[in-house]
Specification:
Layout (H helix, E strand, L loop, with lengths): L6 E3 L5 H10 L1 H17 L5 E6 L5 E5 L1 H10 L6 E6 L22
Parallel strand pairs: 1-3, 2-4
Antiparallel strand pairs: 2-3
């Protein structure tokens, strides 16, 4: 699910841009090393937060870019996340099932 054409980064144009920045900066590289070591042992402790644009139905990582890159590198097919609609009337974390059809997928 985490790929440029499905769930995209908000702070970067493409996931490759996020990876490149994380590799360049010492602080980011240290965090990535920590995540790469801890996720296989302990799983993802803090869920990724996804936002869905009500206007375009685009899905973005709103919080958790480092975690997302680590999951992509580890080729984790599933991961814990929270999600919300980005609407003109406000934003709130949803409790209902995630709309996987926006990604061209069926619900797991």
């Amino acid at each position: 699910m985490l790929r440029d054409g499905a769930i995209r980064p908000t702070e970067y144009t493409r996931w490759a841009d996020a990876r490149a920045r994380f590799a360049r900066r010492q602080q980011d590289a240290a965090l990535m090393d920590s995540l790469m070591a801890s996720i296989p042992r302990e799983g993802l402790k803090v869920p990724i937060v996804l936002g869905i644009s009500d206007r375009y139905s685009d899905v973005y990582v709103a919080d958790g870019h480092h975690r997302a890159v680590a999951l992509m590198t580890l080729r984790a097919p599933r991961f814990p996340f929270h999600w919300y609609w980005i609407r003109s009337v406000g934003v709130h974390i949803e409790r209902r099932p995630f709309p996987y059809e926006l990604l061209g997928l069926e619900a797991p």
